[in-house]
Amino acid sequence: MKIHDISMLLNSDVAEWPGDTPFQFQLNWTKQQSGSVNVGQITTSTHIGTHIDAPFHFNEQGKKVHELPLENYIVDAIVIDVSGQDVISRESLKEVLTGKAKAVLFRTNAWNKRVIFPDEIPVFEVGVVEWMVERGIVLLGVDLPSVDAITSKDLPMHHALGTAGRYILEGLVLDEIKEGTYQLIALPLKIEGADGSPVRAVLVEQVHF
Ligand SMILES: Nc1ccccc1C(=O)C[C@H](N)C(=O)O
Ligand SMILES: [Zn+2]
Ligand SMILES: [Zn+2]
């Protein structure tokens, strides 16, 4: 079994969404002060680094993080390379064999410096959601800070996914990952009422003897 870590490193250099809370970890109570242990504190947006969006992020009636079905986040996944494409269309995906994959992870390779927030990112045609539904794919993952354009306010892809009962994983690190099938594990924290949560995302590669 080989485990690929596809999560962003969290520290104060990681680029937050413009205007959102920067990530910070600090030792709040040192071993010297407490007499026994080091104790840290984190300050973060729920949309930092590699994270999931709960439907409540963009829909008042949507599910919150503690209500999300965990089956979505331990799944067979396919990684598809779409690098160089500004628009990822349904048409361009029609020949792709997704087999029993329940998650699709798109490798755009368009966000290389994670300390800088990108101005522009590749976008998805909403038809990609229908393509997912036809194939029984429940989760869309991207190596980008959003599944919609950065400046979008109406968030067509977020809403199309939410309406179709599909789920969102953002900020993956897929630079080193080859196209193919893996097991994805990316569990959100059990934060009551939350709109999103950082995850530790990994791809497990089955090694055959
Ligand atoms: N953190 C934010 C603060 C303000 C406005 C948008 C965001 C987002 O996170 C949007 C992005 N599409 C996301 O779901 O991660
Ligand atoms: Zn998000
Ligand atoms: Zn999002």
Automatic annotation (TrEMBL):
Pathway: Amino-acid degradation; L-tryptophan degradation via kynurenine pathway; L-kynurenine from L-tryptophan: step 2/2. Gene3D superfamilies: Putative cyclase. InterPro entries: KFase/CYL (IPR007325), KFase_sf (IPR037175), Kynurenine_formamidase_bac (IPR017484). One of its GO terms (biological process) is L-tryptophan catabolic process to kynurenine. GO terms for molecular function: arylformamidase activity; formamidase activity; zinc ion binding. The keyword Metal-binding applies. It comes from the Bacteria. Belongs to the Cyclase 1 superfamily. KynB family. Catalyzes the hydrolysis of N-formyl-L-kynurenine to L-kynurenine, the second step in the kynurenine pathway of tryptophan degradation. PANTHER family: CYCLASE-LIKE PROTEIN 2, KYNURENINE FORMAMIDASE. This is Kynurenine formamidase.
